[in-house]
Design goal:
With about 70 residues, the protein is of the alpha+beta class. It is built from one helix and five strands, in the order E-E-E-E-E-H. The chain has a single domain, classed as SH3 type barrels (Roll), CATH 2.30.30.
Length: about 70
């Protein structure tokens, strides 16, 4: 099973971005999203350090709500 985590882009530098989720920042590769328009405040799904898909802010929020529910019952 693979898990991608939604993160908000804070800054972009070429094929790299600084992303944030739940107060944690990570450097993320945008290499797999070549040709996609990516800018600060966009949301992306991140899997093992790579942004793999752009998502809406609403999709990111709903995903985090579901992850939080799962963790509450773990």
């Amino acid at each position: 099973m693979c898990l991608a985590v939604p993160m908000r882009i804070k800054s972009v530098d070429g094929f790299n971005a600084v992303c944030e989720a739940k107060g944690i920042e990570r450097e993320v590769s945008l290499f797999m999203m070549q040709g996609e328009e990516i800018a600060p405040d966009d949301h992306v799904l991140v899997h093992v350090g790579y942004a793999i898909q752009k998502v809406s802010e609403e999709e990111a929020r709903v995903t985090w709500d579901l992850i939080d529910q799962v963790l509450e019952h773990a």
